[in-house]
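User: I've been trying to design a sequence by hand for this structure and keep getting stuck. Would you show me what you'd pick, starting by listing the structure so we're on the same page?

Assistant: Good idea, let's start from the same input. This is the structure you sent:
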């Protein structure tokens, strides 16, 4: 019976060793598969990382362009506002010049009217004096 027990123990050990070898081989196979998968996926992961970096760089450039366009729009808006203010100022100056010119025209018209009136009065007075002189001349 001892021999049977020894044989059974020996077979049990052989099975345990075989199972351990299978487990070690299985673990080694899993590690090899993981390594193959990692080596195969590494270029894809690197490509994705590079693509992400390029995309981020594109987004940064686009953001900078948007900022430049917004700044240009603000400068243009400011320039338009300044031009509008200057045009309003010019309009006020022109209106003031027109008002002064109208006053000058009224003043000149009054002076001309006054001078014409005096000239007319002088002419009339002169005619009357000539009539009086011609009537008072002695007749021969």
């Amino acid at each position: 019976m001892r021999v049977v027990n020894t044989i059974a123990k020996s077979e049990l050990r052989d099975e345990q060793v075989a199972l351990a070898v299978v487990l070690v081989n299985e673990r080694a196979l899993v590690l090899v598969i993981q390594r193959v998968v990692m080596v195969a996926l590494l270029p894809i992961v690197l490509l994705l990382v590079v693509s992400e970096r390029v995309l981020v760089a594109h987004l940064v450039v686009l953001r900078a362009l948007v900022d430049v366009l917004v700044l240009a729009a603000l400068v243009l808006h400011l320039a338009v506002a300044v031009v509008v203010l200057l045009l309003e100022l010019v309009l006020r100056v022109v209106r003031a010049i027109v008002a002064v010119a109208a006053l000058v025209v009224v003043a000149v018209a009054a002076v001309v009217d006054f001078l014409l009136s005096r000239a007319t009065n002088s002419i009339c007075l002169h005619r009357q004096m000539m009539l009086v002189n011609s009537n008072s001349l002695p007749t021969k």
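That's my pick for every position. To get oriented when you compare it with your attempt: The chain has one helix and no strands. The two ends are 203 Å apart (CA to CA).
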